[in-house]
Amino acid sequence: MTYLWLKAGHVTFVIFWMAGLFMLPRFFVYHQEAEPGSAEEARWIDRERRLLRIILWPAMGVTWALGLALAFSIGAFTQPWFHAKLGLVLILSAYNVWMAGYAADLAQGRRRLEGKRLRILNEVPGIATVLIAIMVIVKPF
Ligand code: HEM
């Protein structure tokens, strides 16, 4: 029973986290289309900060906490599919940290990447989600 409640919570916060991971790079693309120093740019800086503070950081933390609790409850630490999933989730977490850094740079007026590059980076969470779903449901190894 505890396992099922943990899993329901885990999947819910995974959805919140992934929604934020899909939104933020989109925000960056629109942000970079705004005139530097304009009121529109200020609005994007504010939206990015809120998305990180209200959705991304809390959802990432709760997803990790419930995911690790699930792993303990089913003894997943010895299973190869779980090692693969952990590797993928670490990549997603690093991506989250990188995006927070990029948002901080944008807020300082530094636009390090072109819109095209940002659009390509936007594929990272999608690809990771497909692979994670296969690991956790099919458990191919
Ligand atoms: C943050 C670290 C994470 C840890 C430690 C973790 C760990 C786990 C564990 C141990 C389970 C139970 C698997 C089972 O009962 O067979 C699980 C279930 C699940 N996880 Fe995660 N997970 C994490 C992040 C994620 C992410 C980022 C996603 C999606 C992108 C995800 C998607 C799922 C799904 C869909 C299930 C339910 C699978 C089922 O139907 O049984 N998890 N997770």
TrEMBL record:
What reaction is this protein's catalytic activity? Answer: protoporphyrinogen IX + 3 A = protoporphyrin IX + 3 AH2
Keyword list (alphabetical) reads: Cell membrane, Heme, Iron, Membrane, Metal-binding, Oxidoreductase, Transmembrane, Transmembrane helix
Binding-site residues for heme, renumbered to this chain = H10, K85
| Localization per Swiss-Prot or TrEMBL | Cell membrane
Q: Tell me the Gene Ontology biological-process terms attached to this UniProt entry.
A: protoporphyrinogen IX biosynthetic process
The record describes its membrane topology as:
Multi-pass membrane protein
Pathway(s) where this gene product acts:
Porphyrin-containing compound metabolism; protoporphyrin-IX biosynthesis; protoporphyrin-IX from protoporphyrinogen-IX: step 1/1
Q: Transmembrane residues, as ranges?
A: 12-30, 51-74, 86-108, 120-138
Give the protein's cofactors. heme b
Mind telling me which InterPro entries this protein's record contains? HemJ-like
User: Would I find Cell division among this entry's keywords?
Assistant: no
* Main location per the UniProt record: membrane
Question: Which Pfam families does the entry mention?
Answer: UPF0093
Keyword Amino-acid biosynthesis among UniProt keywords: no
Q: Which family does it belong to?
A: Belongs to the HemJ family.
Its quaternary organisation is:
Homodimer.
Q: What is this protein called?
A: Protoporphyrinogen IX oxidase
